[in-house]
Amino acid sequence: MTDTTAKNTARLRLPKHTSPYIFALYMATIMAFLMSLVITLNESGMGPHYMENVMNAYRVAMPAAFVCILAVRPVVIRLVGLTVHGH
To answer: Is the dihedral of CA 19, 22, 26, 32 positive or negative?
Structure first.
């Protein structure tokens, strides 16, 4: 990596203390979309408006997933600490 590339990359990065929120954002974005795909397929089938229905479900699911991940994260960290040796 050149000095210019390293400098530009460092400029685009967020501070370390934001990592729980960025993790929650990425996790919510991916999981809500995948779950919207699966649940819409199960409920409505693969019709001509499938992706439109998926995106309608996603608009509700993504913010809900983000808030839920933020709320559940401390509990999960505690459970992992109780379950995994060395934490």
So the answer is: positive
**What mean pLDDT is reported for the chain?**
90
Task: Indicate the residue type of 9.
Answer: T
Which residue has 């509990």 as its token pair? 75
Q: How far apart are CA 81 and CA 78, in angstroms?
A: 5
Percent of the chain scored above 70 by pLDDT? 87
Note whether 65 and 32 are within 8 A (CB). yes
Question: Among candidates 34, 27, 37, which has minimal Cα distance to 65?
Answer: 27
Q: Which amino acid is at 33?
A: F
Residue where the block lists tokens 């409920």: 43
